Amino acid sequence: MRRKNLFTEENILFQEAILDRSGLGDATGLSDAILRMNEGDVKTSLKDSLDETEMIMYEIVDDLLKKTGRDPKEIDVVITSCSCFAPTPSMAAMLVNKFRMRCDVLTYSMAGMGCSSSLVCIDLAKHLLQALPNRRILVVNHENITNNW
Fold first, then answer.
1. Domain extent listing, the chain
2. Which of 5, 32, 86, 100 is 20 to 30 A off residue 42, Cα-Cα?
3. Burial class (CB in 10 A: 0-12, 13-18, 19+), 58
4. Would you give the distance in Å from CA 109 to the centre of its chain?
5. Cα distance between residue 76 and residue 93, in whole Å
């Protein structure tokens, strides 16, 4: 980024300080849109953000279903959140469609609610389990790096 004069030196030092404190390491996976920044392309699109969201959510939910031995049709409620990314269709609808869940699955999308949206999702799941005992609820929180770089 320094060679391409994309940012001022002050901007780069700030970004380096944030990255140093973020906990990201050499094994951290980043979206293609972020990796393209190294080539001088600092623009991201809605498609880039959707690609990242699909890549992360689908892999995580697929791994969860395999580890627990659950069929997606057993899930009664899907709750998703992302603090600053609110795609259409919603992340919950994306999961229902991808994993071919039942048509009567309840979906809640807590997109655009800020950093505390994941806590709101857990509280919603708690209240739903009290009102609808013995239901299976899938809660997925994803923070979109591409959208917020």
1. 46-148
2. 86
3. middle
4. 12
5. 13
Q: Which residues are bridge partners to 139 per DSSP?
A: 79
* AA letter at 53: T
Q: What is the CATH number of domain 46-148?
A: 3.40.47.10
Distance CA 96, CA 125 (A): 17
- Amino acid 135 reads R
The amino acid occupying position 83 is S
Query: Which secondary structure element, helix H or strand E, spans residue 146, and what is its range?
Result: helix 145-148
Q: List the helix and strand counts (H, then E) for the chain.
A: 6, 3
Q: What is the pTM of this model?
A: 0.80
Cis geometry, peptide bond prior to residue 89 (ω within 30 degrees of 0): yes
Q: How far apart are CA 46 and CA 89, in angstroms?
A: 12
Q: Which range among 32-36, 66-70, 108-112 has the greatest average pLDDT?
A: 66-70
8 Å CB contact between 78 and 105: yes
Tell me the per-residue pLDDT of 75-134, one tens digit each, with 9 for 90 and over.
999 999 988 888 889 999 999 999 999 999 999 998 877 778 889 999 999 999 999 999
